[in-house]
From TrEMBL:
<feature type="region of interest" description="Disordered">
    <location>
        <begin position="1"/>
        <end position="21"/>
    </location>
</feature>
<protein>
    <recommendedName>
        <fullName>Aminoglycoside phosphotransferase domain-containing protein</fullName>
    </recommendedName>
</protein>
<dbReference type="InterPro" id="IPR002575">
    <property type="entry name" value="Aminoglycoside_PTrfase"/>
</dbReference>
<feature type="domain" description="Aminoglycoside phosphotransferase">
    <location>
        <begin position="80"/>
        <end position="239"/>
    </location>
</feature>
<dbReference type="Pfam" id="PF01636">
    <property type="entry name" value="APH"/>
</dbReference>
<dbReference type="InterPro" id="IPR051678">
    <property type="entry name" value="AGP_Transferase"/>
</dbReference>
<dbReference type="InterPro" id="IPR011009">
    <property type="entry name" value="Kinase-like_dom_sf"/>
</dbReference>
Length: 334
């Protein structure tokens, strides 16, 4: 990919107010007088239908008649909205994502108002589709991930963090006992932080962990979805001609449209992270993990070649770069 095809994301150029409304979005252009459900309406509706409410990441609130989904909670971040905003305006013909209509912050809660995708989660239909269609889906996803790699940082201001240079929102770092994850100015600095998280607070142990050397410090930093589980891939079968704006994503010979949802964990991360997380969320040894993921996610850095043999617990442990990464994830109790 030549440099002229690159698209630079400048964090300071992203909308960042606690309350943003995008009146040029389809929600308002179709009806300029439309109003969004208020924060109190959403909370009241949730409380009225839930016996034991939780507020960190409650189920999204859906308004099908308005084509609206509201993702909300105390752990939701406007960084996800910023991601959808940027992708829709810069890669809409290559990476299909829900359109963001607005966001609000209210009493510690964040509310993201976005397009409700009319489709099915891929994990619910995967067993029912043909092998040819599975291959078509993987090819489509590969194109989308390749397009994401066109996104670049300012070469003089590279970092590991969210799209807006805030903390990483990966669920691996979601424990209340873990301080905000970044941002970090180097991959090495991020790895040093990550590999010390399992040590008790106040620990004086500064000895290097034997697995630390097998994280890839010279990895490139790329824009990453962070959770390519089939449940976060929506598949739709619109009638041809229904929506010209998705013509580059709709394969004429297959008739399906893929939409990648749930960008909560997205951001700038080491290049290997996408593959590690996709494998980590998959069933061990499953066809999805072993056959299909490698068709659209770069996995060559993760094995199968063994890169270490470490004596631990009175035995030799062999593994790949993925195994070294997973060692630290497991030590966090994940």
């Amino acid at each position: 990919m030549s440099s002229q095809d690159d698209i630079q994301i400048v964090p300071s150029s992203l909308p960042s107010s606690p309350s943003e409304t995008f009146y040029d979005s389809s929600y308002f252009t179709a009806n300029p007088n439309r109003e969004l459900p208020s924060a109190s309406e959403i909370r009241d509706r949730y409380n009225a239908t839930t016996e034991f409410p939780t507020f960190e990441r409650p189920p999204p609130m859906m308004f099908p008649d308005q084509g609206l989904l509201v993702k909300w909670g105390t752990e939701i971040s406007i960084a996800e909205g910023q991601c959808l905003y940027f992708l829709k305006r810069n890669l809409s013909s290559e990476v299909n994502v829900p359109e963001i209509f607005a966001w609000r912050q209210d009493n510690g809660f964040t509310f993201l108002y976005m397009e409700l995708i009319d489709g099915k989660q891929l994990d619910t239909v995967w067993d029912d589709i043909s092998e040819d269609e599975r291959d078509d889906i993987c090819r489509c996803l590969k194109k989308m991930i390749s397009s994401l790699r066109r996104l670049k940082q300012d070469p003089d201001d590279r970092f590991i963090g969210s799209i807006s240079q805030g903390p990483i929102k990966d669920v691996i770092f979601s424990s209340p006992s873990i301080l905000p994850a970044g941002s970090f100015t180097t991959v090495r600095g991020f790895h040093d932080w990550f590999t010390c998280l399992h040590r008790p607070e106040g620990s004086r142990d500064r000895s290097p962990d034997p697995f630390r050397a097998h994280l890839i410090d010279d990895s490139d930093i790329v824009f990453t979805h962070g959770d390519l589980h089939p449940s976060n891939i929506m598949i739709s079968y619109p009638r041809k001609g229904n929506n010209n704006s998705i013509s580059d994503i709709l394969k004429e010979d297959s008739g399906f449209v893929l939409t990648i949802i749930d960008w909560h964990q997205s951001g700038w991360l080491p290049e290997y992270w996408e593959g590690c997380k996709a494998r980590w969320t998959a069933e061990v040894g499953s066809a999805w993990s072993e056959i299909y993921l490698p068709k659209f996610v770069k996995m060559d850095m993760l094995g199968p070649e063994l890169v270490f043999r470490i004596n631990i617990y009175d035995g030799d442990l062999e593994g790949t770069h993925y195994d070294a990464w997973n060692w630290f994830v497991l030590r966090l109790g994940m």
